[in-house]
């Protein structure tokens, strides 16, 4: 597998296997989107993400091991209160916006991050490339 300079990391310490679960969903084509809080990005990081549309990234685990490659199709800003339907579907929740919101709030709460309806998310939509 070719490894690209642009990387997307899934997993963190004490994550109870969530990172590996997400990576397996990506490999199977079930997970085609991810998101993070806009406030976590610097201006330079945001610029780099938007410039990465159309480029290929290597998905790595929390130890930096390459697992698969994806092509970034689109980056979109959306909110927790009204998430873009493509993000909800791409995260594996079908059309169930409420479930998407609840699941993500649980994770952010566990990380000590407070979110509200207006919290802005950066959503990355991608496809697996062989």
TrEMBL record:
<dbReference type="InterPro" id="IPR007374">
    <property type="entry name" value="ASCH_domain"/>
</dbReference>
<protein>
    <recommendedName>
        <fullName>ASCH domain-containing protein</fullName>
    </recommendedName>
</protein>
<feature type="domain" description="ASCH">
    <location>
        <begin position="16"/>
        <end position="130"/>
    </location>
</feature>
<dbReference type="InterPro" id="IPR009326">
    <property type="entry name" value="DUF984"/>
</dbReference>
């Amino acid at each position: 597998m070719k490894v690209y300079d642009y990387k997307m990391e899934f997993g963190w310490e004490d994550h109870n296997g969530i990172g590996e679960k997400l990576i397996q969903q990506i490999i199977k084509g079930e997970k085609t989107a991810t998101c993070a809080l806009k406030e976590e990005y610097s201006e330079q990081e945001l610029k780099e993400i938007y410039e990465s549309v159309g480029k290929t990234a290597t998905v790595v685990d929390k130890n930096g091991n390459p697992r698969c490659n994806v092509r970034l199709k689109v980056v979109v800003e959306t909110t927790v209160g009204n998430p873009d339907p493509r993000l909800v579907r791409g995260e594996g929740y079908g059309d169930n916006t409420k479930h998407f919101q609840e699941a993500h709030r649980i994770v952010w709460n566990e990380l000590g991050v407070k979110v509200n309806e207006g919290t802005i998310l950066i959503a990355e939509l991608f496809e697996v490339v062989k």
